Amino acid sequence: MRSFSYTRAQDVKKAVSEVSSHEDAKFIAGGTNLLDLMKYDIMKPRHLVDITRLEMKSIEETEGGGLRLDALVSNADTAYHPLVEERYPLLSHAILAGATAQLRNKATDGGNLLQRTRCYYFYDTTTLCNKREPGTGCSAITGYNRNHAILGHSQHCIATHPSDMAVALAALEATIQVSGPEGERSIPIADFHRLPGDKPEKDTNLAENEIVTAIELPKKGFARHYTYLKNRDRASFAFALVSVAAALELDGDTIQEARIALGGVAHKPWRKPEAEALLQGKEVSREHFQQVADAYLEGAEGFQYNEFKIELARRSIVRALMQAAKTDQ
Amino acid sequence: MEKNTIAPISKEKVTLTINGKEQQLEVEVWTSLLDLLREQLHLTGTKKGCDHGQCGACTILLDGKRINSCLSLAVMHDGADITTIEGIANGEELHPVQQAFIEHDAFQCGYCTSGQICSTIGLLNEGKAKTLDDIRDLMSGNICRCGAYSNIIKVVQEALERSRTA
């Protein structure tokens, strides 16, 4: 690992000013992704600001009936928190579908959102990669692209976002609280991550010196009808080929509201609200779920090794919705 | 600082309680807990497998929770309580999980075993594993290259049953 300098921040303001005043500085909390990338010489910060001493470690109910997850709460403590398990089981299941117990004990909620892609070429410093070194080219487009995007990709990058947690947060319409030199702001999860376009080096719309302080969950948790369906090459400790966070609000067999977010298929958790709206007022049925699945995958474009993901995503949406609705009809 | 220059070697003082003994240490800021344990303190029971958080050989208990020591900077854990495989037994008396690994022949080469044992104890502390599937899932952060999984799972299952009746 390259050498770097280090400071431990005592409050959010100082953390932000430390990162702003050093060249190539990064915040570090759990470190499970950043240190891994530093060892591979993919991320090369010259200064680390340790934020683990900041007071951002609790899970509290909000005035609006939602829940605030502070950024430094570990993924494990979030997934097993009684209020998360009871009111947002979709989030709990999604978190537990990712990584390992050891990693979830260390990784934080803020860091989970900010983890980098697991594109093989991003990790392989002997290859060209626009995300790692802007302007050099994308090796994945003509390479082995089994785990890559089928939606929202660009000619510059076909990487996917690896987080399971973020997929559930997208379905739940969480809000990300951030703090920077200009003060605080809230970013809806849908606008937090971005599509690669011609700037694949940017994963999110967060400024370099902004810090994630909390994740706010709205009141509606879809605790009765939900599924996190994760398809992967082995049963545990693997990233999603395609995952689906499905949540339904039902009145008898009639769908009041449907939320569907896909993971493993794009540079960000994939939502398509106009397709979800097709289910509004409809009866629970395989046929209706198939229509939504088709609408979701409209315009999907695969590459040599990941064409299969399009049909896999379609079927996964149907299955996830069937499971969420607890029906086999 | 200019690009491509090397940051000066910067050391920090940390206090860590390791296997019950409080120690004042000086560490380079980029030293992982794993390297601190192995290279500086010669506690080589904690193994370096992949050094990337994938294999689990470096699993230790940090404030009672299992973590990958390879993905942790020592400097960030000032004040922490660390238990490594060397601190699991009670003197000459093996921890029941250690004893069970021997009785069930839950290893071949043994390289992953210290991580497997620390991970098992972490799993018991967490109290979330209920079924055999849970055990398999919650032990998936520990790879055994020899493939001793079936006996490792038996150890964890037995340990879970013992902890329920204890």
Topology:
The complex is a heterodimer of chains A (329) and B (166).
Chain A: E1 5-8, H1 12-21, E2 25-28, H2 34-39, E3 47-50, E4 59-61, E5 67-70, H3 75-79, H4 82-87, H5 89-96, H6 101-106, H7 109-114, H8 120-123, H9 165-172, E6 175-180, E7 183-188, H10 189-192, E8 211-217, E9 226-231, E10 242-251, E11 254-263, E12 270-271, H11 273-276, H12 286-297, H13 308-325
Parallel strand pairs in A: 1-3, 2-3
Antiparallel strand pairs in A: 4-5, 5-8, 6-7, 6-8, 9-10, 10-11, 11-12
Chain B: E1 11-18, E2 21-28, H1 33-40, E3 59-62, E4 65-68, E5 81-83, H2 96-103, H3 113-126, H4 132-138, H5 149-165
Parallel strand pairs in B: 1-5
Antiparallel strand pairs in B: 1-2, 3-4, 3-5
Characterise the protein shown here.
The complex is a heterodimer of chains A (329) and B (166). With 329 residues, chain A is of the alpha+beta class. Among the domains of chain A are: 5-51, 2-Layer Sandwich (Uridine Diphospho-n-acetylenolpyruvylglucosamine Reductase, domain 2), CATH 3.30.43; 226-325, Enolase-like, domain 1 (2-Layer Sandwich). Helix content of chain A is 29%, strand content 20%. Chain A contains 13 helices and 12 strands. A 5-stranded antiparallel sheet of chain A has the order 4-5-8-6-7. Chain A has a 4-stranded antiparallel sheet with strand order 9-10-11-12, sandwiched between helices. In chain A, strands 1-3-2 form a 3-stranded parallel sheet, with helices on one face. In chain A, a hairpin with a 2-residue loop joins strand 6 (175-180) and strand 7 (183-188). The model of chain A has no long low-confidence stretch (mean pLDDT 97). The termini of chain B are far apart. A 5-stranded mixed sheet of chain B has the order 2-1-5-3-4, with helices on one face. Chain B has 2 domains: 11-87, Beta-grasp domain (Ubiquitin-like (UB roll), Roll); 96-165, Orthogonal Bundle (DNA polymerase, domain 1), CATH 1.10.150.120. Chain B is of the alpha+beta class and 166 residues long. In chain B, a hairpin with a 2-residue loop joins strand 1 and strand 2 (21-28). Chain B has helices spanning 33-40, 96-103, 113-126, 132-138, 149-165, and strands at 11-18, 21-28, 59-62, 65-68, 81-83. Chain B contains 5 helices and 5 strands, in the order ββαβββαααα. Chain B is 33% helix and 16% strand. Chains A and B meet through strand 1, helix 2, strand 3 and helix 6 of A and strand 4, helix 3 and helix 4 of B.
